[in-house]
UniProtKB/TrEMBL annotation, chain A:
Superkingdom of source: Eukaryota
UniProt domain ER membrane protein complex subunit 1 C-terminal: residue ranges: 712-937
Organism (species): Glonium stellatum
Transmembrane parts of this sequence: 908-928
Descriptive protein name: ER membrane protein complex subunit 1
SMART domains with a match to the protein in the record: PQQ
Subunit structure: Component of the ER membrane protein complex (EMC).
UniProtKB/TrEMBL annotation, chain B:
Regions that span the bilayer: 187-204
Pfam families assigned: ECM10 (PF21203)
Highest taxon of the lineage: Eukaryota
Biological source species: Glonium stellatum
Record protein name field: ER membrane protein complex subunit 10
Keywords from the UniProt entry: Membrane, Transmembrane, Transmembrane helix
Length: 940, 207
């Protein structure tokens, strides 16, 4: 114990400034800067400025992130998050031709961003309305005036109407109010007028499509008519309304997807087409693809998707005669596919992408211009494209090249160039809801063997160990063979790098798996030792059909993990290295080997009350229950990590006395708020007995902000936002740290003394109330709000800990060293010599986040929800994994990497020095020997 | 902190000493190896406590030890129970805690309005001092033979120890700072010493 204490204090003294070294950045950390699933109608290839040769892919995702991605390598050029209010999921993204801005509309806000670097240009907000459509006015006169094109928006929810916004400033030029009560649908722009399409619901539940044409210059109403669509169009059945004069069409179907009706906007006649193959198999989905370019041909494609196959028909619209004719149809192919539209000059090309082929056709005739087999994907028929965008290069009548950015069914966003995968972005990870660490299998088996040895008597354990060693000998030849390669790799300065698919054990324990559950019901295994690459990716809906996995609970066991979800009767068991499902019997056979715990008490938050249960949570009634005082509601519950080793049971003071830590593995920290009084309270409970150990109240707190909390070892911390409307002595954000000791007196172990065992349920014969900790706490002001906090974990707990906090405003993660937030810092005076030797510094009410504490250095981490930490095999190092919108991982060494050689260590130089010294000794040794002999024989 | 106390003072004064009843209720373990366990766990009163919220003084009114065997495996819920709503909250403790060799202590956790929101049970070895009625604990406890009562109020959390703001008076100067001493006030002793030396030396000459 004393050795541990010594080590701990040694580790502590080393902890001066911790920072990321420049040569470690981007090597020890990895970052997936994600967007979310790109929306189909808000994704396009576009030149960032007029005359640019290269184009970028612009997208607005389902997480409402606007971003530009380089189509060459899939790297993110820029992104901006739009989140006006939490319940809005719909948004628009448009860019005018040869413009240097892109316009986004989400909720009631229209924002223009610089297309090349994502800088904010202007914003116009309509707080009481929602933007229903956004189009760029591609008019000749609008263009001739200036080079900035105006935008036309359609507002609904509250005030209905069409507005034209100035393209340079966002100011409203004119407004066409609509007080008819119809629901606005879309706007379409032709060369002469703006068509405003609204849906008028009839008494019978059908819809009538009303088209109003407006003067683009003044916004005055020119004409209005209603299409005879009664009885056929129902809510949700209007498929498409072309946005501009290249596709001035309105299309809708009936309920059973049997007939397709198309109208050219501006005329009152509708053409009716029968959906092909309607008799054989039910058409599930009809999608209309039309060019977006204003000067392209008015050709469009209708995509029919059945359960097992898909086909398409191409139509031509004659704008003069207002006639629509079917040009040709593309044959039915099995499986699911996607169609994309691309234009060069006036020509329109359709690209058909299926699981194994990319086909390019012209809109004019059905001849195939180019065909490429899809390579690089492991021939999995389950993988199919959902939607995408394409760019086609056509030279002399044949498609020279095609590249398509596709959203794939496994949640990846990929670019296929001529049938080959160029890059993939794991956009499904943007919806990470929970994540857990998983050990690698080799490590687990060894741990299991050691556990068996630990539970047997000495002789049996010895025999077991000898047997294990003999068994391990079979790996010896292979190990010997790999030795030269490893040594060479070591000297070359490369760490043993693994291929993308292979996960293998390393000596330092940096290679681990993280299993992430996403909000669309996927489970993804990431290899954190290899820059967080996706190892496996499974869809939980296939394992348990009909259940929505929106908030699954993952729990890791040896080699597998359990997935629990409300509505799921039995948990799913999944192999953590391969992602394959396991049967419950097999898992049971494995888990029977584990030693049984005596009595398990679990706790859970049920109806705003924290309750403890005997055994599993299915047990009938709670055995203890904590209900906060009336009016208070529980906002957070945090517990000590399941594996939280503590190296030293005491804290050595400067005068060699010891303050003993209050170490209770069952601590639970409950944070509550009282809305009426702007008060936040914290309660520290013993989760075995339900006893309340410590309670504290904070007044004048902004209770609408989050109160993150963390609990580790014998200390807890939480952060609060002070209410700005009340007269406080200070304002801003606070970080509170409290440390628990057995007694306030050094060298005193409190009532329990040195007892090794104690129970919080069974009575104790100690002289005083044993369960109570002695609490020291200190409060600091911090410059920024904290949204989440956690504590680093190391293998033995000898290394000093670091509090990892997420700062949502600066998109960063900061590791605050433990000694900075030590609640024993002397207040109002300089530390005495004894305190200074302990490492305590004078209390200052404000903690400034040192730039060296930022773990993310140059990276911007958007939307981090949570951080999880795990120990590595090296004591000095803790692995960190943050998820949310972005995925970020790194490793931290809060007391420096004292057990690892740095990158700057030159092994060759060391070897050369040793060799040179050896050679030197060889030469000098005879000389010295001769001199010694001479000195003995010479007469002084 | 005292301000909060003042705020709640009228409320607290309005409350007459209330009687709080602590109930116990046995827990059926998975293996019912005790025939003494009642089949239906109905909460039975353990202690009645008179509690005065204005003074935070509590005294034991009645105490009925729980029935059944005081074995470690027999668990009891100890807590507050509302018979009207059958709402229950409290802690779990082994029935062995009620054995005679332990000094029991009921802990009442009280919020600022004087409501008891949680209870706790602690035991300690019966020593001679505790039998003599020397109760420890920071709360105001009332000593009885069978059971101690401790009232624990919520603590106000620590506030940041801010530096004192610099207060200037209307003239823009620091308040309370003494005016600068004049040259004479500061160095009168040098002058006096000089004069003394002069006198002494003059006297020496006259001799």
């Amino acid at each position: 114990m004393r050795l541990h204490a010594l080590l701990a204090s040694a580790a502590f003294l080393v902890a001066g400034t911790v920072a990321i070294f420049a040569d470690d950045a981007y090597h020890i950390d990895y970052h997936h800067a994600l967007l979310g699933f790109p929306k189909h109608d808000a994704t396009f290839f576009q030149q960032p400025y007029a005359g640019s040769k290269a184009s970028l892919i612009y997208t607005l995702s389902d997480k409402l992130v606007v971003g530009a991605v380089n189509p060459k390598d899939g790297s993110l050029v820029w992104r901006q998050t739009l989140s006006p209010s939490p319940n809005i999921t719909d948004g628009f993204l448009r860019a005018g031709e040869e413009q240097d801005t892109v316009l986004s509309a989400v909720g009631g806000e229209i924002t223009a961003w610089s297309a090349s670097d994502g800088r904010f240009a202007w914003r116009t907000a309509f707080p009481d309305a929602t933007v229903k459509d956004l189009e760029i006015l591609e008019l000749e006169d609008a263009k001739s005036e200036r080079d900035t094109k105006d935008a036309v928006i359609l507002l609904s929810d509250g005030t209905h109407g069409v507005k034209r916004l100035d393209g340079r400033t966002g100011a409203v030029k004119w407004t066409y109010p609509d007080n008819s009560g119809d629901s606005p649908f879309q706007i379409s722009i032709s060369a002469t007028s703006i068509y405003y399409i609204s849906l008028h619901s009839t008494m019978l539940g059908g819809l009538k499509i009303k088209v109003t044409s407006l003067n683009p210059l003044t916004g005055q109403k020119l004409d209005q008519y209603t299409l005879n669509s009664d009885g056929e169009a129902v809510p949700g059945s209007v498929l498409f309304a072309g946005a501009n004069s290249a596709s001035p069409i309105l299309a809708w179907t009936d309920k059973s997807h049997k007939v397709l009706k198309i109208n050219i906007i501006g005329s009152k006649s509708t053409s009716t087409f029968n959906v092909p193959g309607a008799g054989s198999e039910e058409v599930q989905k009809i999608v209309l693809h039309a060019p977006h370019r204003i000067n392209s041909l008015s050709h469009f494609l209708v995509h029919y998707q059945t359960a097992n196959a898909h086909s398409a028909e191409v139509f031509h619209a004659d704008l003069k005669t207002h006639a629509i004719s079917k040009a040709y149809s593309l044959p039915e192919l099995a499986g699911k596919g996607a169609f994309t539209t691309s234009t060069t000059d006036a020509n329109v090309y359709f690209t058909r992408i299926t699981s194994n082929e990319v086909i390019v056709v012209s809109s004019v005739s059905h001849g195939i211009l180019g065909r490429w087999p899809v390579k690089g994907v492991a021939s999995s028929n389950e993988l199919y494209p959902i939607h995408g965008v394409s760019e086609v290069v056509v030279r002399s009548g044949s498609a020279h090249a095609v590249r398509s950015a596709l959203l794939l069914s496994d949640g990846q966003w990929a670019l296929i160039r001529n049938g080959e995968f160029v890059w993939t972005r794991p956009e499904l990870l943007a919806g990470a809801v929970t994540a857990v660490w998983a050990e690698l299998p080799e490590e687990e088996t060894l741990a299991q063997e050691l556990a068996i040895e630990g539970h047997e008597n000495i002789i049996a354990a010895y025999i077991h160990r000898v047997r294990r060693h003999i068994r391990d000998l079979e790996h010896f030849p292979a190990w010997l063979q790999s030795l030269p390669v490893r040594i060479l790799a070591n000297f070359a300065g490369k760490s043993s790098s693994t291929s993308a698919t292979e996960i293998q054990q390393d000596t330092f324990g940096f290679h681990k798996l993280v299993i992430v559950a996403t909000d669309n019901g996927h489970l993804v295994g990431l290899n954190v030792g290899n820059a967080g690459r996706v190892v496996w990716n499974i869809d939980l809906a296939q394992l348990a059909p009909g259940i929505k996995f929106d908030n699954p609970k993952l729990s890791i066991s040896r080699g597998y993990f359990e997935v629990r979800q409300k509505g799921l009767e039995t948990p799913l068991f999944i192999n953590s290295t391969t992602g394959s499902a396991l049967t419950a019997e097999k898992v049971k056979a494995e888990s029977d080997q584990l030693p049984k715990a005596q009595t398990l008490i679990s706790y859970d938050l049920v109806d705003g009350e924290l309750s403890g249960f005997l055994g599993d949570q299915e047990a009938s009634s709670p055995i203890w229950k904590f209900v906060p005082p009336s009016g208070e509601r529980i906002v957070g519950v945090s517990a000590r990590p399941a594996r939280d080793p503590v190296a030293s049971i005491g804290k050595v003071l400067g005068d060699r006395r010891v303050l003993y830590k209050y170490l209770n593995p069952n601590l639970v920290l409950v944070t509550t708020v009282l809305d009426a009084r702007r008060r936040a309270s914290i309660y520290l409970l013993d989760s075995a007995s339900g006893n309340l150990l410590y309670a504290a109240v904070h007044n004048n707190i902004d209770i609408s902000r989050t109160i993150p909390s963390a609990l580790s070892e014998n200390w807890l911390s939480y952060s609060l936002t002070l209410d700005s409307s009340v007269e406080n002595s200070s304002r801003g954000y606070q970080l509170v740290v409290a440390e628990l000791f057995e007694s306030s007196i050094p060298n005193d172990r409190g009532p329990l003394g040195a007892e090794t065992n104690s129970s919080s349920i069974q009575p104790s014969a100690a002289s005083d109330d044993a369960a109570k900790p002695y609490v020291i706490s200190q409060t600091y002001h911090i410059p920024e709000e904290i949204s989440h906090m956690t504590v680093t974990q190391t293998r033995q707990g000898i290394t000093s800990r670091e509090l990892l906090v997420t700062l949502p405003e600066s998109n960063s993660i900061v590791g605050i060293p433990r000694h900075v937030i030590d609640p024993r810092r002397p207040v109002g005076r300089d530390p005495t010599a004894a305190e200074a030797s302990e490492g305590l510094t004078k209390y200052s009410p404000v903690i400034q986040f040192d730039p060296k504490w930022y773990l993310n250095h140059k990276m911007e981490l958007f939307g981090i929800k949570s951080i999880i930490t795990s120990p590595a095999l090296l004591e000095s190092t803790s692995l960190v994994f943050a998820y949310g919108l972005d995925i970020f991982g790194t490793r931290v060494a809060p007391s420096f990497a004292f057990d690892m050689l740095g990158k700057g260590f030159n092994k060759l130089q060391m070897l050369a020095t040793v060799a040179a010294l050896g050679v030197g000794v060889l030469f000098v040794a005879p000389l010295v020997r001769r001199k010694q002999i001479n000195s003995l024989w010479q007469i002084p | 902190m005292w301000l909060a106390g003042v705020l709640f003072l009228p409320l607290a004064l309005a409350v007459t000493p209330s009687i709080i009843t602590i109930y116990t209720c046995p827990i059926h373990s998975a293996r019912p190896d005790h025939s003494s366990l009642p089949t239906i766990p109905t909460p039975t009163p353990l202690a009645q406590i008179t509690f005065d919220a204005s003074t935070s003084l509590a005294s034991l009114k009645s105490y009925t030890p729980p029935t059944g065997a005081y074995t470690p495996s027999h668990l009891l819920r100890v807590g507050l129970y509302d018979p009207a709503t059958s709402e229950w909250k409290g802690v779990v403790a082994s029935a062995a805690s009620f054995a005679n060799e332990y000094q029991k202590k009921l802990i009442l956790h009280v919020d600022e309005t004087g409501d008891v929101y949680h209870v706790g049970l602690a035991t300690s070895g019966r020593s001679k001092t505790s039998l003599n009625g020397d109760s420890k604990g920071k709360g105001t406890g009332v000593k009885m033979e069978e059971i101690d009562i401790e009232v624990v109020e919520r603590t106000q959390a620590s506030q940041p120890a801010l530096n004192k703001p610099i207060v200037l008076n209307s003239e823009g100067r620091l308040e309370g700072k003494e005016p600068e001493k004049t040259f004479l006030q500061k160095y009168w002793w040098v002058l006096a010493l000089f004069l003394l030396v002069q006198f002494v030396s003059a006297g020496g000459d006259s001799k």
